[in-house]
């Protein structure tokens, strides 16, 4: 069996690289000898912030943020892009670890840590970022009177959903080629958040109702929109908090090159898409807003996708083919389903695609599969959706034509030199 180890940041760079090399070698040997554990803790297999490549993104940073829709970077997966995806995934993981998920606690669904200590206490020291604002999401569901007698966790309408963090470390700013601003959003936790997830009806975006027609109205899932825009009494909506903080950051760092990256998993990925759309609509002078979406459900219809593309919002959807959450809500006809196209004569497919009531996938896709990893025995619905699973798959993926296990064997045996992974 492979011994699981925790990768920490050694004092010296040589020791760090040696530690990573030994760890990777053990993983590969395990693949070849079929000695992988049956119930793996995938987190230890994913590089920490300190394991990042020392290469600078420099002048190419906009390409890694999707300015050219990640053309030529996804298949095979570019190593710098791999590192960036994992790095942003860790920001989301920190949001999960910092949230209090104990229903018996008086601070249930709130953040356990102060802004200053969030990264350290979540196990992600050395990010080079500082948390500047905490974010909350509020459910707009009207609760019945009897809920007053139910446990408090059932009626928790406002909950801590994530944070905004700004890169402050000059070495990291130099490596990234700009000052980066991250918005990290966790997935579903509270009872009302789950209920909002079930609100699969499409509703028009409120800020462009006057431009809607019966054909081209951009619409999004009502529950996601509710969590993004709802407010209670003096409690700001998530939308208000994001707009306020972005405006403050733009004013403080006026004249600097900034990037805005919104990373989220599951529900957080859906909210990240809405947040990105809203930022581009509200702040017309921001040139580039990027979304790193991990296991996100569908958010809106074809018209919504069109508006995202038109405003220049860049979305990288990391999708596990075995994850059911990425296939809901609604339905989408697979454009590659030739049998369906032949039988329908294309007209049914076109009718569905033109309908405002049908969900559409957005952005660019990095498609992975749990089935390609030797660390999964069978398909477990819950495991396939976990953030750690996604980070493990990103870390392992080479290309669509070069499976992980086959690549490992070639490396270790130094054979098949005439076969190249492309």
From TrEMBL:
Keywords: Chloroplast, Hydrolase, Lipid degradation, Lipid metabolism, Plastid, Transit peptide. GO terms for cellular component: chloroplast. It is found in: Plastid, Chloroplast. Pfam families: Lipase_3 (PF01764). InterPro entries: AB_hydrolase_fold, Fungal_lipase-type. One of its GO terms (molecular function) is phospholipase activity. It comes from the Eukaryota. One of its GO terms (biological process) is positive regulation of programmed cell death. Residues 182-331 form the Fungal lipase-type domain. Belongs to the AB hydrolase superfamily. Lipase family. This is Triacylglycerol lipase. It comes from Solanum tuberosum.
């Amino acid at each position: 069996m492979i011994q699981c180890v925790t990768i920490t940041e050694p004092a010296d760079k040589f020791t760090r690289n040696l530690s990573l090399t030994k760890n990777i070698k053990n993983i590969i040997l395990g693949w070849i000898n079929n000695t992988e554990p049956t119930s793996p803790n995938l987190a230890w297999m994913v590089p920490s912030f300190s394991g990042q490549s020392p290469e600078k993104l420099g002048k190419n940073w906009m390409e890694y943020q999707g300015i050219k829709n990640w053309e030529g970077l996804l298949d095979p997966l570019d190593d710098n892009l791999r590192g960036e995806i994992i790095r942003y995934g860790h920001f989301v993981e920190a949001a999960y670890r910092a949230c209090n998920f104990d229903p018996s606690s008086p601070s249930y669904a709130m953040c356990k840590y102060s802004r200053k200590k969030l990264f350290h206490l979540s196990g992600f020291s050395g990010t080079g970022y500082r948390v500047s604002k905490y974010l909350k999401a509020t459910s707009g569901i009207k609760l019945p009177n009897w809920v007053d007698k139910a446990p408090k966790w059932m009626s928790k309408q406002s909950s801590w959903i994530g944070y905004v963090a700004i890169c402050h470390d000059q070495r990291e700013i130099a490596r990234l080629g700009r000052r980066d601003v991250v918005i990290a959003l966790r997935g579903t936790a509270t009872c009302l958040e789950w209920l909002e997830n079930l609100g699969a009806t499409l509703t028009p975006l409120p800020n462009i109702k006057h431009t809607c027609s019966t054909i081209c109205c951009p619409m999004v899932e009502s529950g996601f929109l509710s969590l993004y825009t709802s407010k209670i009494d003096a409690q700001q909506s998530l939308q208000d908090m994001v707009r306020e903080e972005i405006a403050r950051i733009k004013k403080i760092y006026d004249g600097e090159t900034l990037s805005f990256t919104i990373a989220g998993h599951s529900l957080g990925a859906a909210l990240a898409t809405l947040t990105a759309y809203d930022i581009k609509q509200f702040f017309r002078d921001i040139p580039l807003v990027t979304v790193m979406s991990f296991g996100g459900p569908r958010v809106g219809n074809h018209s919504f996708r069109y508006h995202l593309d038109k405003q220049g919002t860049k979305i990288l959807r990391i999708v596990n083919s075995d994850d059911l959450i990425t296939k809901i809500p609604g339905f989408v006809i697979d454009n590659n389903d030739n049998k369906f196209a032949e039988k329908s004569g294309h007209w049914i497919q076109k009718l569905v695609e033109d309908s405002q009531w049908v969900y559409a996938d957005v952005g660019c896709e990095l498609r992975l599969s749990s089935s390609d990893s030797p660390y999964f025995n069978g398909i477990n619905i819950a495991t396939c959706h976990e953030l750690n699973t996604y980070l493990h798959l990103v870390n392992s993926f080479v290309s669509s034509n070069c499976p992980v296990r086959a690549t490992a064997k070639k490396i270790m045996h130094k054979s098949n030199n005439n076969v190249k992974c492309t």
